[in-house]
Write a structure and sequence with these properties.
Layout: H1 6-38, H2 41-67, H3 82-110, H4 119-146, H5 149-178, H6 183-210, H7 216-226, E1 232-242, E2 248-257, H8 262-280, E3 282-292, H9 297-308, E4 313-322, E5 327-334, H10 341-355, E6 360-366
Parallel strand pairs: 2-3, 5-6
Antiparallel strand pairs: 1-2, 4-5
């Protein structure tokens, strides 16, 4: 069920991760040497941070390999959600780096040490700032391009590292010129920013794992593609499940003429699945049908007017009347902002029941997508 370009996407992520590993190991080596020679805790801490970035790239590399595994009996929808776990681990490393940097900075505010910087130190730290800046922008750009939360997070982390290295560079200049040691204070400030970034990354990843609302543009595009099929009056109850980036499987109900035969419905379902997959890369695995009932239009419009006058009702569909069983069926989409959605549904059901006392009213509350 993979899209044609999925393998190329994985190759891009792997290449970018390998680049991040090599650059961060190189930077960490130089910074560790300079930090030890200059007796600078800030530079040593920056080196450790680069090592954590290299570890982040290793995690992304492993996650990409795991997520590209073919579906199997235990995981019929593939292993794409490994990327979400990868993103969570990267967010955890960012948080760890930020908290560690903050604790270390506070410790050196309480027990200050006088570093000994040199022009060589400034050159190496300054070069590290530019390197991390370019690396962060490049990795972030690739992350957005291939829709990888893990790469985007690693790119943001690299940009924050560039700020941290810049603070060390500025502190070194101030120390050389005015003999003031400000690096622990600047380090604490930057550490707070890094912690905030890690928390935001963790929140975004948890949203993906829990199941966030599908992107509105994608939902509209899928419904529009479905409604291109002749004989489809509307698309409802669309549910999209993400099994990793670019692995989206969904189901939908469509409203069709009640006189359609089973073979016509089957052909329509095939056409819808093929079109949506070709146009958007979304696999519509299930297509349910509602009958477009034209026999009770007056009753339908009367009830629609009654329902839509209530604030918070987004949609009414799947309307059907069974004269023999004396039943009215319909689905309602109620805004999540309504404080008591069940109470609103019960209120509407009672109003319809009062207007049509000879019928049993059955309302189904659909999810607000």
């Amino acid at each position: 069920m993979e899209k044609p370009k999925m393998s190329e996407r994985n190759r891009i992520i792997v290449r970018t991760s390998v680049l991040g590993i090599l650059v961060n190991i190189l930077l960490a080596s130089f910074k560790a040497l300079v930090g030890v020679l200059a007796h600078s805790i800030a530079v040593i801490l920056d080196a450790v941070n680069n090592l954590s970035d290299a570890l982040s790239s290793v995690i992304i590399l492993c996650g990409t390999r795991l997520s590209s595994k073919e579906p199997d009996k235990e995981h019929p929808y593939g292993h794409g959600r490994y990327e979400y776990l990868t993103s969570m681990l990267v967010a955890g490393l960012v948080l760890y780096a930020g908290i560690t940097a903050f604790i270390t900075s506070i410790r050196h505010i309480i027990h200050p040490e006088i570093p000994s910087y040199s022009p060589v130190t400034l050159i190496i730290v300054g070069s590290a700032v530019l390197t991390k800046l370019f690396l962060g922008r490049y990795v972030s750009w690739i992350g957005r391009k291939v829709q990888s939360d893990a790469l985007s997070g690693a790119g943001k982390d690299a940009l924050f590292d560039a700020l941290l290295s810049l603070s060390v560079f500025v502190s070194a200049v101030i120390n050389i010129v005015w003999k003031l040691s400000l690096e622990p204070y600047i380090g604490a400030l930057i550490a707070g920013v890094i912690v905030r970034s890690g928390l935001m990354m963790l929140r975004d990843t948890l949203d993906n794992i829990l199941g966030r609302r599908a992107d509105r543009e994608l939902v509209d595009a899928v419904k529009s593609s479905i409604c291109k099929e002749p004989g489809v009056f509307g698309a409802y109850d669309l549910i999209l499940h993400s099994y990793g980036p670019e692995r989206i499987i969904g189901s939908v109900h469509v409203e069709v003429d009640e006189k359609m035969t089973a073979s016509q419905v089957a052909e329509m379902e095939r056409n819808i699945s093929e079109r949506v997959y070709q146009e958007l890369g979304v696999l519509i695995s299930t297509v349910g049908v509602y009958a477009h009932n034209t026999k009770h239009m007056e009753m339908a419009e009367d009830i629609r007017h009654m329902v839509m006058t209530h604030e918070g009702i987004l949609q009414m569909h799947a309307f059907d009347v069974d004269r023999k069983k004396r039943q009215i069926h319909m689905d309602l989409v109620i805004d999540f902002n309504v404080k008591n959605r069940q109470l609103l549904q019960n209120t509407i059901c009672a109003e319809i029941q009062n207007a049509y006392p000879d019928y049993a009213v059955h309302l189904t509350m659909d999810t607000d997508f």
